[in-house]
Structure formats: structure tokens, C-alpha cells
């Protein structure tokens, strides 16, 4: 039996064009955009079967708990490779291949973005399997999607001469074209560049080193000096900082003579913006997609999603309306690519909603800010069964907790006690404290913080079950 | 010096076309739609000067504290006449005139809706003064606005022959016409019916009695049996229930031979829907009106208002976007009249947002629901200086209070004590308790309620400073 394919899943993107649902604090790939699973989970599920080894997930440290929780929720085992910072796909893929090549240089690696949707995973796996001979023979195979419209949002590939079975050499890579060129590409049967790659680890490392030796050396250093962090492998920050920030297409694929393209028809979408999500979602007779507490009157062709607020549309056409607790987007469906510009505007104005959600996920559970005001803040805190916040103290705030669900174990200085529903705990300023959920059901608390400074960074961690101390 | 004009301000409307800002719990007339004052307050301010007596305000009991607070905030004294239920403008005006006629049958009454905007109050007062001779002579004078466009939203009046100075007999009343007829009315210089009236109290009572003797008798009974309620006069419910629910136009004006119309040009708008508010608001170069945390990118002709959430518009035209904490409206600006239909849909689906705001105003201050869940609820409570909640208990819930601003005086059973910022009070289920603000600044608390039933009606009032016990 030949060696399995080693999947490498890229989780580093921030997906600003799906704002306000996707933000730095919970980017697109961790959001259930279509169906019950996030696109990251869908990517893991796509890799089921004997063809694939345990996936390597390359992710930012900030998203570690999301990766672990979401993988665990679907019983998928992963190997975590933590990036110290975002440096685009090139260095991430190179580091992963360097790691894989240390064990088995000829191992074949399948690189997958974590934020795509594939409605026909079997067809996806078939296409991967059929490209294996070319990858084994030293080709850098990219998967090309058979285009069904003249997209100006994707990169295109013109296939060249046939090489190994089902693969063609790449004649031309063309970045996002204008409408006229896109129409030509479509009629000439060019393919969309899907961003999925299949190749031997050693081939990729060698080609990368040929075109960018500095980055190859830096990536090798980052992997060599990588440290175990409670089961995850953290790339060395200094080494990784020496890589050039760039995409694999730009660093290698557009330069190498080994580039090949394999056709794929698998219900693929990169869900690049809200309009793309509308296009692949089930629509009603009037072309509307409606999620959450939405009400529509004489409305057509709209995508509306509401996180609780009653969102009412009256007499409108072809809009995207996304309502989160702290941020709302109303965009023309044909202008969804510009949502990225709106996020830049919000960032330039210092609006926290550009990057942060009102809800935050933590290894131990999650919290949501219910009210923020001068001198006080109210949060709803959920601690998962077995969850254990760090032993900590605050320099600038006192906290009141009221248990509203379940039974919480609370340490305050030298005392440990259990508190049930409707019990109150006061954490004085400076007190060393810890919150735990020793039970089998979620614990929920309402927290009222009071103090001169209420930032998340006013936490002095004395001990932490999740390696954050 | 002649007797002053007796203003009667009608506060009974519910303004559903300005949903979600205007709802039954805080209708349009109490909202600061344009500038710092509500239209109710603007109506009071319009009546300053020696021409007018202390206004009578006809309002629903539920809105009493709003009327009193908003009048007090601009130092305006009012006489409150409480309607037991909404029966449209006819019975409300008739009851007020019956009341006025008991003191002085010949008193001249000026009826004003409380939800209109008049940008030139002096011109308004001049027009009223100039119609006085006609009213004194027994005319029922309605004020006609010189039309500037072919509105299909207003009633129109065709003036007839001249009667007293500056007044014309009414030749025709025409209800909301179609566009073609509206265009004809405009070119024939018909007037818009503003819903403001000037007439002697006895004339109105006599004419009403002539056309609808049952209602006249019922209204007389409602006034005769009216009861003093801590300074307000509450119409007798049984009597008032005997009146026919109808508008004054329909009950009297369209039938009487005494109808007259006086021209008025005073920057009038009935702010009948969001588009009307957009039209009278200051707009930027691209025709946008923007209030609160709104961000616009390549957007034209829009009205956007946000109650805190960052509301972002991308590439849209001629929309109304109104975001309240619990409800959002996105409507085409030309379709704002249909917002009323959306409210009906929400009502038919039992959505509380059709009628109720997340924030509620009370005589002692206000509160806002921050979170509502099974078994618990979180509120932010503000008690105004001198404010005093009723002495009360709950049958189904316990409450935790954390003071986050100011100093609260709290009674729990036999104890009264003052609590400062960051102090916690527990109100056990069934405990008799009271919250007061003895200081000069607002007191704010976060309340966590826990119990099997959390409805507002689980309050057993033992004593109340605002006549609600």
C-alpha cells in the first residue's frame, strides 16, 4: 500500500470580505457559513478515508482553541503547527513541507485552504487521487476548476500540453482579469485557480529554495527551532520572521517549470464574499436567502442574516443585510467585493468592530459583552464542562459574578467553593481567583466588572491549563 | 384683553410607519426625530407666548410619565387628560372641548397633533391668530398647508368662497388621492389638510352632537365622571367606551356647513414616514442623512440611523436603514409607507418588537433589557434623582443588583441602607423591597433576575409614588 497523502490545511486567513460575521477574532473559516459545520470542519470532513494521513493544520496562535474545539467536535485528529504571525500562504506551506520532508522527503502533500466550500467531496477526492502520479513524478499540481461564469474575482489558468495522466502543464497563470478578458478565458476553457495543491514535500522545498533561498533557509530555521507548546508545534518566531511574505502562486507556481494543473469539478466555491455565499445557498421563490430573525416584505434577491435582532426588509432588491449584535452591513449584492474597503475604513477610524467580535471564544468556553460603559462592563460568560480559567488577578478592576446556570467552582485567594444558580461571588480588586466548571453541563454567569480600566489585557495569569500563563 | 386660546394637544397616536424607532411603548411623538426635542416638546414650544393658555394634553395612561417628564424637561406646564383607550381623534377632541366648555363655552380651542414638525413656529402662530375671528364667529377652522408637491399621502382641501378674513369655506375634502388626481389638486392650488383645528368649544360640541348624538352623550359622561389621578384627569372608562372610534374629519368636518380653511405656510411636515423625515433633515453632498455610528461607502440618498451598532452601507442608493438594539429596518425610501404593513406582519407573528422597545421609560427613570434567556434576565436600570420605585415584591423571581453609578437607597424587608458603586444587593424571592435615588445624579444598576417567570406583570405594588399601586 502506498504512503498516504499528507494534508496541510491553511487556517491563517482573516476573510474581511465576509465582515461583520468574519473578523480577525473569528475569521470566515471558523464560521458555519453553509450548513452546521464551519468551512474548516468541512475541510477536515473532506479528508476522510484511507487516502489521507492525519492533517497538519497551520494556524495562528490566537485561533488555536478554535481549531482544537472545532476538530474535536467532529472527532477529527489534527497536528497543529502554529504560525507566530501571518506571512501569507508561501511561508506557511513551505514550513509545513519542510516539517513533512524531515520524516519522509517523498511524502505527497495536499494543501487545502480552510475557507472553501466543496459540495461534492467524493469528486474532490477522485480528482486528488488522479493527480497523484503527476505529483509523485515531481510535478507541482494545482487544481483548476471548470469555470461556469466569467469571474473577475478569481485567478485563471490556461492549461498547456498534457503531462502525466489527467494533468496538463500550466501554460499561463492570469490574475483577476477585467470582464472582457474573463469572457475570453471562459470561452477558451481556461480554469479557475482553486488554491489547492498536490506535490511532494521535497519538490516544493527544492523549488522554493531555487527561487527564494532566503525564505527557504528562514523556514528551515523556524521548523528546526520549533517548540512544543502543550501538544502543538510552534514555529520559531525569529526564523519565521525571516521569510518573505507572499503567496505560493507568486513565490513558486508562476516561476517553476514543474507547474501542472488537474481539472476538478466538485461544487467548489471560495465563498469569497457575501454574494458568493448567496449564490451557493438555497433560495426561496423570490431569490431570497434568509437566516435568523428576518422578515421580508416585497423583497427579492436578498441575502439577510440576523444574530437575534428582528431584521425587516421592505421593498428592496438584491441587497446583503448582515446584522450582528454590534455591527450591521447593508450592501448592494453586486458590490460585495468592496466590503473589504469598508473594513479598512472601520479600522482606520479605530472602530473595534473591524477586528473584534462581541463574542469571544476561549479554550475554556466563551464570553459575550452585553454592555460596555465608562467604568463598568457586563459580560455573559459560558464555561464548558471541564473548563478552567487561569488562576489570575486584575490590577484595575473588581468583579461581581452571578451564577445563572449550572454549578461553578470558584477560587478567591485561599478559599475554594462551589456556587449554584442565583448565588453571587465578589472578586475584589487584586484578589487571586479562578473559575472552573467541574460538572457535565455548561456553567453560565453574568459578570459585572467595575474599574478604571477594563481591557482584556488586565489579566495577570499565575497558572493556566491552556499554556497561556 | 381677549381670552387666550386653549390648546389641546393630541398624544394618542402610535406612529407605526416610523417603526422600529416609534412603537406603542414609545411612539413617534415622544422621539427626538429632528433636533434635541421630541415633536411633542416642539408642539409645546410652538405654543409659547401670550396668545395661549396652559395646554391640555390628551394622552394614554401608559404614556403619562413620558408626557410629564418631557414637559418638565422644557419647563412647560400642562393639564393632563387621560384617555382610557385609543378611540381616534374625534372622541379625544370632543372630550377635551366638553371639558373646556364647562368652564367657558365660548373659549376658542386650538387642536394640535403632537407628532408634526413646524420649522417656522412664528408663521404658525400668525396663521392661528389670523383665523381667530372666523373661529369666534362659529367656524370650525382647519389649517391648510400650501402644497409643494403632488402628495398621495395627505388629505387635500379645495377652498371655496371667502368667509371671514383669511378664511375660506371648504368646498371639498379629498382623502389620499392617486398620483394623477394629486397632480390636478396641486395645479389647482388645493391645500393639504394639516389636522390642526381652531374653533369654539361650544361650536364643536354642538356640531358633534348634531351628527353623532350617542358619542356626544358618551363623551359628556366620560368627562362628568372623570376622576382625579394624582393631578391628572382620567376620563371615565365606561363613558368613553360609548363613543364611536373615528377621526374628527370623518365625524364632523366633512359633514358640517361650518367648515372653513385657513392657509398656512410654516415649514410643516407630519413626518408621516422615514422618507418624510429624510426630506426635512439636513443631508450631505450625496443626499445622505446619517445618525449615530454609521459608516457609508459609495452610498447616495440614504437615511441611516443607528442606536450604537456600527452600521455600514456599501454601494447602495435611496435606502432607509434604522438599527435599534433589538430590531432593524431596511427599506427602499420610496416604499416607506409600507413599513406599517411590516409592523402588522411582526404583530401577527407575535414578535414583541412590533410594540415594545428594549428600553422602557418609567416615572422614576428607565431600564433596558441587556439579555433575556430561559430562567434569567439582565437589565440596566437608571433611577433619576429623586426617583423612587414602588415598594414591591415578586412572586416568581429573585434579583441581584450591582450599583455601577451613584448611590442607591435600598429597602429590603425591614432594612433601609445606602449602597455605593460596586456594592451588591440581593433581593430574595418574595422579599418586600424598594429602590430609590436620594441624590442629585443618576443612579445606575445592573440587575440580574432569576426565576421561573420574569414578566413585567410579576410586580406586587404595595405603595407607589406615581399612583400605580
From TrEMBL, chains A, B:
Record keywords: GTP-binding, Isomerase, Nucleotide-binding, Nucleotidyltransferase, Transferase
Key word Nucleotide-binding present: yes
SUPFAM superfamilies hit by this protein: Nucleotide-diphospho-sugar transferases, RmlC-like cupins
Top enzyme category: transferase
A Pfam match: MannoseP_isomer
GO biological process: one example: GDP-mannose biosynthetic process
GO molecular function: GTP binding; isomerase activity; mannose-1-phosphate guanylyltransferase (GTP) activity
Highest rank taxon of the organism: Bacteria
Gene3D superfamilies associated with the record: Jelly Rolls, Spore Coat Polysaccharide Biosynthesis Protein SpsA, Chain A
Family statement: Belongs to the mannose-6-phosphate isomerase type 2 family.
Transmembrane segments: none
NCBIfam families (alphabetical): GMP_PMI (TIGR01479)
PANTHER family xref list: MANNOSE-1-PHOSPHATE GUANYLYLTRANSFERASE
Occurrences of domain MannoseP isomerase/GMP-like beta-helix (ranges): 298-346
Reactions this protein catalyses: alpha-D-mannose 1-phosphate + GTP + H(+) = GDP-alpha-D-mannose + diphosphate
Organism (species): Methylorubrum extorquens DSM 13060
Record EC number: 2.7.7.13
Domain Nucleotidyl transferase: 7-283
Domain Mannose-6-phosphate isomerase type II C-terminal: 350-464
Name of the protein this chain belongs to: mannose-1-phosphate guanylyltransferase
This protein's record includes keyword Phosphoprotein: no
Amino acid at each position: 500500500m502506498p504512503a498516504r497523502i499528507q494534508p496541510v490545511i491553511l487556517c491563517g486567513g482573516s476573510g474581511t470580505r465576509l465582515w461583520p460575521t468574519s473578523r480577525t477574532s473569528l475569521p470566515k473559516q471558523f464560521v458555519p457559513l453553509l450548513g452546521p459545520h464551519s468551512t474548516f470542519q468541512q475541510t477536515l470532513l473532506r479528508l476522510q478515508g484511507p487516502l489521507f494521513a492525519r492533517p497538519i493544520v497551520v494556524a495562528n496562535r490566537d485561533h488555536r482553541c478554535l481549531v482544537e474545539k472545532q476538530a474535536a467536535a467532529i472527532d477529527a485528529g489534527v497536528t497543529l503547527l502554529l504560525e507566530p504571525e501571518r506571512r501569507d500562504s508561501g511561508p506557511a506551506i513551505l514550513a509545513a513541507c519542510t516539517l513533512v520532508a524531515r520524516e519522509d522527503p517523498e511524502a505527497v502533500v495536499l494543501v487545502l485552504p480552510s475557507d472553501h466550500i466543496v459540495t461534492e467531496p467524493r469528486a474532490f477526492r477522485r480528482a486528488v487521487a488522479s493527480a497523484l502520479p503527476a505529483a509523485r513524478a515531481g510535478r507541482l499540481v494545482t487544481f483548476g476548476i471548470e469555470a461556469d461564469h466569467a469571474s473577475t474575482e478569481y485567478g485563471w489558468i490556461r492549461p498547456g500540453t498534457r503531462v502525466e495522466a489527467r494533468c496538463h502543464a500550466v501554460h499561463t497563470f492570469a490574475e483577476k482579469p477585467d470582464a472582457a478578458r474573463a469572457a475570453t478565458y471562459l470561452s477558451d476553457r481556461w480554469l479557475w485557480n482553486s488554491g489547492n495543491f498536490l506535490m511532494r514535500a521535497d519538490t516544493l522545498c527544492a523549488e522554493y529554495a531555487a527561487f527564494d533561498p532566503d525564505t527557504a533557509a528562514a523556514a528551515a530555521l523556524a521548523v528546526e527551532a520549533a517548540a512544543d507548546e502543550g501538544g502543538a508545534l510552534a514555529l520559531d518566531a525569529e526564523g519565521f520572521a525571516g521569510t518573505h511574505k507572499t503567496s505560493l502562486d507568486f513565490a513558486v507556481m508562476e516561476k517553476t517549470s514543474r507547474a501542472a494543473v488537474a481539472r476538478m469539478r466538485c461544487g467548489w466555491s471560495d465563498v469569497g464574499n457575501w454574494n458568493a455565499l448567496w449564490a451557493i445557498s438555497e433560495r426561496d421563490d423570490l431569490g431570497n436567502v434568509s437566516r435568523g430573525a428576518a422578515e421580508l416584505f416585497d423583497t427579492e434577491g436578498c441575502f439577510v442574516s440576523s444574530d437575534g435582532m428582528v431584521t425587516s426588509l421592505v421593498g428592496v432588491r438584491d441587497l446583503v443585510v448582515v446584522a450582528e449584535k454590534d455591527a450591521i452591513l447593508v450592501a448592494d449584492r453586486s458590490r460585495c467585493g468592496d466590503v473589504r474597503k469598508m473594513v479598512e475604513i472601520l479600522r482606520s477610524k479605530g472602530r473595534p468592530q473591524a477586528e473584534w467580535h462581541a463574542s469571544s471564544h476561549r479554550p475554556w468556553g466563551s464570553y459575550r459583552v452585553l454592555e460596555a460603559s465608562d467604568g463598568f462592563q457586563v459580560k455573559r460568560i459560558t464555561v464548558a464542562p471541564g473548563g478552567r480559567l487561569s488562576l489570575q488577578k486584575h490590577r484595575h478592576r473588581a468583579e461581581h459574578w452571578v451564577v445563572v446556570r449550572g454549578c461553578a467552582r470558584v477560587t478567591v485567594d485561599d478559599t475554594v467553593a462551589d456556587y449554584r444558580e442565583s448565588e453571587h461571588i465578589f472578586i475584589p480588586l487584586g484578589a487571586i481567583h479562578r473559575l472552573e466548571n467541574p460538572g457535565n453541563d455548561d456553567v453560565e454567569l453574568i459578570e459585572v466588572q467595575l474599574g478604571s480600566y477594563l481591557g482584556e489585557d488586565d489579566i495577570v495569569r499565575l497558572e493556566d491549563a491552556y499554556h497561556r500563563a
